[in-house]
Design goal:
Elements: H1 9-64, H2 66-81, E1 85-86, H3 90-102, E2 107-114, H4 129-132, H5 171-179, E3 189-200, H6 202-214, E4 218-227, E5 231-234, E6 240-243, E7 248-259, H7 264-278
Parallel strand pairs: 1-7
Antiparallel strand pairs: 2-3, 3-7, 4-7, 5-6
Amino acid sequence: MKFESNLNDKDKKTIALVLGAAVVFLFCWFGIRPTVNDILELDGDIDTASLKQTEYKNKIINLSSAETIFGRAVTDLSDSTEEYYPMMQSSDIDRMMTSYVLEFGLYPESMNITMPVEPVVEAPYVYSDIEQVTVTPAPLPTATPTPAANSTGSGNNESSTYMPEQIDSLFVPYNDARTNAVSTASSGIYCVTLSYTVTGSEEACQSLIDDLSVKPSIRLTGFEWQEVDQIAEEQEDGTVIYVDSENVRLRVDFNLYMTDIADYEEVVQEAVDAAVVEE
């Protein structure tokens, strides 16, 4: 049977062009497009892996310097606590300060000790330089990730949303914490309030005041001179006269600062040993 059509040659060519274009489109859509998408997705995965590799390298570099930072932290902690007294009970403080006063040739009459219950919140001297400085916390560093290549293909492209973590030197948070510290509440320093009354020569009392005022672990908060009662002396004829004792009475008020002085390297080593045992 012969198939006949009333289509002219121009219509036949148009239909042939449309069918050819459709074939080419279908071939590109189902043949070439998946391959292109796979290539773009693979490129995105490579970019993401490169970013992660750089991030991990930075972390490894920082971890390799952790020992140095730990050594500095231990040194800073030791230097900042070496001037303070160790933690003591009130009885220990009483014995220590009594011996201290006796070294000046003074007679201790009374002592009032107020023990702390929490770390001290200390304010600087009102006319000191540190009191005049307004501490403004430094702004936190802003992460600036390197953008990965964007993929226009379909599928789960991790590189289009991956934000690499900003890796700063381990010294940055350590220095920021020290710079932005504006309170002594977390210092671990405890303040003992003492009021001591002694008698002795005026020179010895003045020496006591001078020595207390220069001790880094003691803060002299006040003192008061008082007169000592005259001494009764019996004369040869049986009469009694009152004469000056040539001594004075001094009340000194001061703060004594103490802290728990720990061997931080030993503490960390014990923690590491305990972790190894648990494993």
